[in-house]
Specification:
The chain is α/β, with parallel strands linked by helices and about 150 residues long. About 15% of the residues lie in helices and about 25% in strands. A 3-stranded mixed beta sheet has the order 1-4-5, with no helix packed on it. The longest helix has 15 residues.
Length: about 150
């Protein structure tokens, strides 16, 4: 049974088709209503890098998909997939947030050991990084990004 995944990428103001935007007239002067909106950045682009993970109904990684299994749409217009590759060995950047409040004091040692075991089993030397942040009354960075 062939799996077909429809990856719909909604490219808005930041990622627009270069040919469509290049010929549009200058925008009208801002009205008071427009000034309340967040500022927009319009940029012509030739390539948009879309990273994604596909899971099946059982939340298991689907790793045997090929370029032909995907369609990319921008405003319901099919876009060419110019480059397709499987990225299964990307570097990890992990943030660990630990509760150090009084409510966890009796389990703090377990929490620390579990965190250490997790990081030592997941991080690859020279490739991945992690940071550790704790919170009690206020959040505090205990260790910034490091290998």
């Amino acid at each position: 049974m062939r799996r077909t995944i429809l990856a719909t990428v909604l490219l808005t103001l930041l990622f627009t088709a270069a040919s469509d935007r290049a010929q549009q007239p200058a925008p009208a002067p801002a009205t008071p209503q427009d000034q309340q909106k967040a500022p927009s950045i319009i940029q012509n682009v030739n390539l948009v890098d879309v990273l994604f993970t596909v899971l099946n109904r059982r939340n298991k990684l689907v790793s045997d998909l090929e370029e032909k299994d995907f369609k990319v749409l921008d405003d319901n217009n099919a876009q060419d997939i110019r480059y397709f590759s499987k990225q299964s060995n990307l570097p990890l950047r992990i943030g660990m947030l630990l509760d150090t409040s009084n409510s966890i004091r009796d389990r703090l040692k377990f929490e620390q050991e579990a965190s250490n075991n997790f990081l030592y089993s997941v991080l690859r030397r020279g490739k991945d990084e992690a940071f550790v942040m704790i919170f009690d009354d206020e959040p505090q960075i205990l260790q910034g990004f490091t290998g």
